[in-house]
Amino acid sequence: MTQNFFDEPLEQSKVKGQIVADYFPVWAKIILSNDESIGFVDLYAGPGKYTDGTDSTPLLILRKAVQMPEFAKSLRCIFNDKNEEKVKSLCKNINELQGINKLTSFPTLLNSEVSDDILSFLGEISQIPTFYFLDPWGYKGLSLGLIKSAIKSWGSECIFFFNYNRIQAAINNPQVQNLMVALFGKDRLEELRTKLVDLDSTEKELEIINTLSEALKDFGGKFSLPFCFKHAEQDRTSHYLIFVGKHPKGYSLIKEIMAKYSQKDADGIPSFTYEPKKNVQLEFTFNRPLKELANTLLKEFSMKSIEFKNLYKEHILKTRFIRKNYQDVLNMLEEQGRITMDKPRSQRIRAGKLTLGDKRIINFS
Known about the structure:
The protein has helices at residues 11-32, 57-67, 69-74, 84-95, 144-150, 164-170, 177-184, 186-196, 201-218, 248-260, 290-300, 308-315, 323-335; strands spanning 38-42, 75-80, 108-110, 130-134, 157-162, 223-230, 237-245, 273-274, 305-307, 339-341, 349-350, 353-354, 361-364. The chain is of the alpha/beta class. It has two domains: 2-274, Vaccinia Virus protein VP39 (Rossmann fold, 3-Layer(aba) Sandwich), CATH 3.40.50.150; 290-364.
């Protein structure tokens, strides 16, 4: 099946690649305001294109880079695949990319099996802020050790593919225990197996994802965000795309980008789920109705005055709400007379819409 993976791009694959391609230039712009070089590493790169000519992640990233002079000058790329023919195809596709000569450094192509120590062979790129994309078909090669190594440098972040459909079946399979230990850690895996015994399928999914998130924190990934992909033909989860980083700014930005590709409820709350068949929202433990957000803010910030940007920064890690949800709730509370702001509503209307900027001071009574 992996041999045919790049034959035709599924909608899920397009969304996955687009999330990475949308986030990369946002991340790069922030890093380059503090550093002279940036890196991008894809350890399961494939040929760069599907057989119908659609770009996959390596080409999506390089197209972004050649269009932006500041990125073209500073970017160092490494693309790896264990399949030699795919590496040859990728090299051909990169050379044919219009504007590729704008890059100061031509991408480095590797043909290697992925393991925890592969990053030690990447040279100087492992010492500069680097964005890592780990997209294995199954789970072999994916480990906490690899993710820890990927995000260890300042500014480095990672998005990885988590094949939930296969991993949940492998958790209790003794033949692949070493791979599951590498992914969850020995103690957490044993604890997870015990917890899963009496849970239904939805509860099992939540427990597995939450266990992984806790394991990532232990290995330096303080901020993680899972994006769920439902199966195209069946009403069940296929896989996840999981962001992991060390700074709340990255978490806030990837949250907004993932929300664009997510189903939303009537209040505009993203489910962080891509479901090809219908609008289904997986109820994570920290996902709450929008009306409850209003009550929570009133309680947590009672008798305080705070700038919107600080309120948002302080609170986003507790929920799955995005910036617009917070703005809508605060504007609603102001209209109800339950909070005030330092600038009247009449002066915050732009193009017919009520705005709420980062520097607005919110006064909670």
